[in-house]
Write a structure and sequence with these properties.
single chain, mainly alpha
Length: about 70
């Protein structure tokens, strides 16, 4: 038997803004990694992806805020 729990979030305006920014950051990271590793000269590896994630994405302002809060994507 499978059981599931459905939880509804009801964030206030500040929380909604933060969640929208966090989701945008995840989307931006994914798109940047996809763009980088879809080129033949950049073969994919977990180490290369992690290095790019930690060093190459710091130009996106909200990404550094997420890192300070230890949000993992």
């Amino acid at each position: 038997m499978l059981l599931a729990h459905k939880i509804e979030l009801q964030p206030n305006e500040a929380q909604k803004e933060y969640l929208n920014k966090a989701c945008g950051t995840v989307r931006h990271c994914y798109n940047q990694l996809l763009e980088r590793f879809s080129k033949k000269e950049n073969p994919f590896s977990l180490k290369a992806a992690y290095d790019f994630y930690r060093t190459g994405l710091t130009s996106f302002a909200f990404f550094t805020v997420c890192q300070q809060h230890n949000l993992s994507f």
